[in-house]
Amino acid sequence: MNKKPLEELISSHYKPEEYPALDFQIRTGKQFRPFDGVRVLDATPVFRNTCAKYLALLAGGAELSVGISDKIPFDPAIAELLQSCGIPLRRPEAVVPGEFDVICDCCGCFAHAPGKFGNVELTRSGITYYNDAEFPVFFADSGRIKILETELGTGDGLSRAMTKLGYRDVTGRKILIFGGGKVGRGVALALSRRCALPQVVEARENWLSRPYLHYVGIGDAPAIRQAIGEAWCIVTATGLAGAVEEYVPDMLKAPALIANIGVEDEFGPSMPPERVLNGKAPLNFLLDEPTHLKYIDPTMALDNSGVVSLLQGQCRPGLNEPLPAGEREILDRIRRFGCIADEMTAIGL
């Protein structure tokens, strides 16, 4: 296996302060080899910046394979590069339980084939596949670190994708966002910084106040329909398949742009893919880098740390949240050596 092309790719596109957590794992991995001989399947979405995550696993001695799925967009050029380096690509239907020691999953694509020591799940969308798991699952999305990726990174990615599509000026535009979780808040933050007017459909008991957000109650159907009719753009960010299906007829009548920022089809079959930007796929995934490495570095480092937790037997059967001490260590490193300390402070991290 030749990892030099991956090292050259990362060093030519990023500075160390853009991935301080993974850089630390790469350097310490070479010294301590925490994954020596461990068979790891990593199903993190395959894009350029994901190669930094792979390098940390390889530096630690992992026997790495990379998972790809029709459910999750990936960069074909990076997939081809991985193969040229001697890293196998595996699809869910070809993987059997126990074939790998640990699987770093995304959206539950490999939930049917648990690793010998368990799985790591990257996203909130994947939790439904693991709720009744009888094997250990390290749930990376449940920690504080994921806020960096979603509130800062995902929203920024959607904003950059809109710019790429030619929608550069959103000043005064009404943006209706379904879902006020980490992703929805991030979309609202990014677009409010561009002087848009975000409205968020959410259940009041789940509402976390932000000064740039305007609330539409999830149970107030007339208000939601009115907001759909007035919106310049509608964004789905619930993470739930079919979550907005009842409002699809209203969306089809409205002149608004429509976008999705999660991996699930939140509209259902009645919404034609051609009516949604990027054909219902997450809008930021049309970019070469859907989420900037500086925002997703902490999440990918936490995901890798989940492999260590599983190997050391620290996780019980079922879902396991990251330990606060482990998250603090990563966050402290980002503050000290990273380039997003001011943004972290702005969102309370």
Please provide a written account of the structure.
This protein has helices spanning 4-13, 20-32, 50-59, 76-84, 146-164, 182-192, 221-230, 248-253, 293-311, 324-337, 341-346; strands spanning 39-42, 63-67, 89-90, 102-105, 118-121, 136-139, 174-178, 197-202, 214-217, 233-236, 257-260, 318-320. The protein is 36% helix and 14% strand. It is of the alpha/beta class and 349 residues long. Helix 5 (146-164) packs across helix 6 (182-192) and helix 5 packs antiparallel against helix 9. A seven-stranded parallel β-sheet has the order 3-2-1-4-5-6-12. It is globular, with a radius of gyration of 20 Å. The mean pLDDT is 94. The chain is built from eleven helices and twelve strands. The protein folds into two domains: 4-142 and 293-346, Rossmann fold; 149-281, Rossmann fold (3-Layer(aba) Sandwich), CATH 3.40.50.
Helical proportion? 25-40%
CATH C-level category of the largest domain: Alpha Beta
Cα(first) to Cα(last) distance is: 39 Å
What would the average pLDDT be, to the nearest integer? Answer: 94
Q: Helix-strand pattern, N to C? A: HHEHEHEEEEHEHEEHEHEHEHH
CATH superfamily of the largest domain: Adenosylhomocysteinase-like
- Helices, by number, come to 11
Q: Give the tally of structural domains.
A: 2
What radius of gyration results from the CA coordinates?
20 Å
Structural class: alpha/beta
Q: Main sheet, how many strands, which sense, barrel?
A: 7 strands, parallel
CATH domain topology of the largest domain: Rossmann fold
Which regions have little confidence, pLDDT < 50, spanning 5+ residues? none
Oligomeric form? single chain
| CATH A-level architecture of the largest domain | 3-Layer(aba) Sandwich
> How do the strands line up in the largest sheet?
3-2-1-4-5-6-12
